[in-house]
Amino acid sequence: MNPHGIIDRLRLPDKADINVLYQQILRVTYDEEEDDTTEWDLETFRRIIGAILVARKPLSVGELDDLLDLCYPASDGSSNRVDMLNFVNLLRTVLVSGMDTVDKTTVIRLHKSFFEFATENCDMRFRVDLTVANAEMTLCCLKHIAKSYAVVASTQFASSSADLRDLPHSAR
């Protein structure tokens, strides 16, 4: 897309409401003219933005990616991991302050006005339901804890098994 075209499409009246700007950013990012935005694209938006909104502390791109572990279904029946870095770069104007390069360590910070926009004022296709977002974040945290526990448990089992092998047969 022509970068000058994006700037032209974001031009707003001088006294425009911030919600109009946010809505325009979503329109440009999810190009309505091409009509190639899928329900999965919208669901991905709601899930990622929802997680950012309900997180108790700001998360880095990498932390959010690991926590959500989002995959989208491929046409061959397999699944592909959502490119969180690409998602954040596409919406960096509302997700990242400053002009530094976005990488896995970049911390995502939303302005309070975007919180209100995403939960109350945006197009229903993009609207985040905080109850759903909190439930999903809870499930993601529980999965992350279970996964971490499984790794620790398997490591401890492997080391305790190794200790048993080191003992003489009569001491077992």
Commentary on this structure:
- With 172 residues, the chain is mainly α.
- The chain has eight helices and two strands; from the N terminus they run ααααββαααα.
- Strands 1-2 form a two-stranded antiparallel sheet.
Q: Main traits of this protein?
A:
single chain, 172 residues, mainly alpha, two-stranded antiparallel ribbon, disordered C terminus
What's the gist of this structure?
The chain has 172 residues and is mainly α. The protein has helices spanning 3-10, 18-29, 39-54, 61-68, 84-90, 92-95, 112-121, 130-166, and strands at residues 71-73, 79-81.
Spell out the blueprint of helices and strands.
Blueprint: H1 3-10, H2 18-29, H3 39-54, H4 61-68, E1 71-73, E2 79-81, H5 84-90, H6 92-95, H7 112-121, H8 130-166
Antiparallel strand pairs: 1-2
Helix pairs in contact: 3-8
Q: Radius of gyration in whole Å, from Cα?
A: 22 Å
Overall helicity: 55-70%
Q: Enumerate the strands of the largest sheet in spatial order, edge to edge or round the barrel.
A: 1-2
* Low-confidence residue ranges: 164-172
Structural class: mainly alpha
Distance between the termini: 70 Å
Q: What is the averaged pLDDT score?
A: 82
Give the DSSP E fraction (strand runs of 2 or more residues).
under 5%
